[in-house]
Amino acid sequence: MGCGRKDDKASLASSQLSSFSHQSHQPPSTPASKEVWKKGGRMFSILLAVHLALLACTLVSSGAFEKIAVHDYDVFFLLTVMMLIVIIWIIFYLTGTSRCPDAIPCKDSHAGPIWLRGGLILFAIFSLVMDVFKIGYYSSFYSCLSAIKIIYPIVQAIFVVVQTYFLWISAKDCVHVHLNVTRCGLLLTLTTNLAVWMSAVTDESVHKAHSKLKKNMTEEFFRWIMRAGMRSSSAEECNCNSQICQIFKNGYFWLYPFNIEYSLFASAMVYVMWKNVGRLIDHHSHHIHHLKFRLFRRTFFVGIMVGLITLVSGLGVLILYEVQVNSSTESSKKSQALTMYYIFNIVCLGLMSLVCIGGSVIYRFDKRDMDRHKNPTRTLDVALLMGAALGQYAISYYSIVAIVASTPRDTISALNLTYALLMIAQHTFQNIFIIEGLHRQPPKEDHKHDSHQKDLYGLTFVNINAVSLRVPDSGSTLAASTAAGTDAIQPSDLLRSLAAPKKLNWRRKFLREMSMFLLLSNIILWIMPAFGARPQFDNDTELNFYGDSMWPAIVDICLPFGIFYRMHAVASLLEVYIMS
Predict the structure, then answer these.
(1) Which residue among 41, 93, 195, 449 is least packed, with the fewest CB closer than 10 Å?
(2) In this structure, are strands 173-174 and 106-107 parallel, antiparallel, or unpaired?
């Protein structure tokens, strides 16, 4: 991979270096033409990604149904080829940029923060465990399966390792070589992650639908339904009677949520890299804030304690819900589980909404300036928060219409209606709180405040009597400050300067408490639907109103976005916590 600059920003950088000596000979249309080339390169990579995404979406959705002559191993073959191409391109990128010293002249300090890369590694580890379980499961009866069923998890494990290493060391890069190839490679990586995400979501949804059907039917009738409608996995046609085979099967389905979140996290980081291709950063205007993560400093532990209580309580509710709904056929226990689930969520969502409103009120009195610099990472965070919330909005509004229009209305319907309304309110207030926090300037270093405060205290203790005795009614300035030739200091300004850091610390402490409580609460609200607590399938109101076909389709499409919203909110709230 050579070091030649082929288009847009790279040549623009070289032209800027010689612009002072050749300014009179510079054609006036050069910047515009280079900007057009930049947009043209981006457009070509976008078109490539759109076509690949549509192809993958078509195969994945077609492979979920029996009557369509597309099998799951066709989907696995396409995904395997895409992942192999991405692995080759990543090796090409890492090798080429390491050999060219001018390939990455600057880095985006806002891209790929340590907590986002740490979360990526955590999800990558669970994804690797899932791939190991898949390999063990498919190897149990390899004689009756296509070879691609075993090759796919092996390639996926290699893909996860290579991509995680690539994003860990290159997430901040602003590449200036082979721009069009880099843009296409990055969007191919993004499309591959989205295709893997679609496949995992579809596979998980089909598996849950099969489990609910199989629980209420005999084995022969279940197989007949599978032949008539939804496709069962080809592995289910083989015998999986051993204990180790069942462990592998149940294990990798429980680990699907981590793989789903890994794909989405990687997609977000790759998109920021794509936006930074060819970008020139002015270090004078692009402020770099070295923020330190101090979890147990400047807090009252109230937010952490209440958040941990909410987290532990939610785990208990999840376990009881799974036991009573999935392991029992009695309607009374099912109603008790739904009531318990709705009450917990109503209390949790109500507290979160109040905290978000309180945080927004505190921001009204925050004296920090707004950060108006160009920041692709923050722009993506806001877009993902607003976009992912639409999934839960859709489910809530569908539930509201079904509950209001249905009769009769019982206690569970009232709880479901309250839950849907609070879900809409909590998403709205939380988005406002997070977006305001992301657009605030980080606080100044504490030692600056401390040194300034020490000077003021020294001035106060030495001259406080002089201030009180010598200041006439006209409000003249301090004689000592005037004689020294410094700026004039009013007594009222002095007192405000002494009180300002204290007030600022109180606001910051409250914002930290609120951010930590919201962070832990979003974790449990992500865990509950991700690991099986989905009352949308267990509540008969929506199923009876919309039908057995329309309502599950709505939930299967919208719920993954709601689950992703929670995990993305956790990452954003962690950033708000650190910046407070």
Answers:
(1) 449
(2) antiparallel
| Angle subtended at Cα 418 by Cα 415 and Cα 419, rounded to the nearest 5 degrees | 85
316 has pLDDT over 80:
yes
317 vs 76, 262, 271, CA distance in Å?
36, 26, 37
- Tell me if 120 sits within 8 A of 270, measured CB to CB: no
Q: Contact at 8 Å (CB) between 568 and 428?
A: no
Positive/negative CA dihedral, 509, 511, 514, 519: negative
The 8 Å CB, 24+ separation contacts for 29-35 are: 34/7, 34/8, 34/9, 35/8
Length of the chain: 580
Domain ranges, ordered by start, for the chain: 40-220+240-281, 297-442+503-579
Token pair 């979406």 is at which residue?
A: 57
* 550: its two tokens: 């329309």
Residue 362: closest CA among 514, 522, 575, 516? 514
The helix/strand count (H/E) of the chain reads as 18, 2
pLDDT over 70 at 328, yes or no = no
- The residue type found at 113 is P
- Give the amino acid at 231: R
* pLDDT tens profile 259-313: 998 999 999 999 999 988 887 776 554 444 444 545 555 556 788 999 999 999 9
Nearest to 180 by CA among 374, 420, 4, 376: 4
Closest by Cα among 342, 331, 404 to 533: 342
Q: Model pTM greater than 0.70?
A: yes
Helices (H), 276-330: 302-321
pLDDT of residue 298: 55
Helix, coil or strand: residue 106:
strand
Backbone φ and ψ for 107, nearest 5 degrees, come out as -130, 150
Return the bridge partners of 173, or none: 107
Q: Could you write out the DSSP letters of every residue in 255-288? A: THHHHHHHHHHHHHHHHHHHHTTT----TTTS--
Token pair in block for residue 405: 């229009």
- H/E element, 85: helix 72-99
Apex 320 CA angle, 315 and 321, nearest 5: 95
- Could you count the other beta carbons within 10 Å of the beta carbon of residue 212? 13
Q: Is the pLDDT of residue 19 over 80?
A: no
**Average pLDDT of span 68-81:** 83
Copy the structure tokens of residue 58: 């078509």
> By three-state DSSP, how is residue 404 classified?
helix
pLDDT value at position 129? Answer: 94
For residues 414 and 342, what is the distance between their CA atoms, to the nearest angstrom? 10
Q: Which amino acid is at 271?
A: Y
Q: Which two tokens stand for residue 344?
A: 């917990």
Assess contact for 189 and 163: CB atoms under 8 A: yes
Give the mean model confidence (pLDDT) for residues 523-532: 89
Provide the CA 230 distance to its chain's centre, in angstroms.
Answer: 31
Exposed/middle/buried for residue 520 (C-beta within 10 Å: 0-12, 13-18, 19+):
buried
Whether the pLDDT of residue 454 is over 50: the answer is no
As a whole number, mean pLDDT of residues 497-524 equals 76
Strand, helix or coil at 370? strand
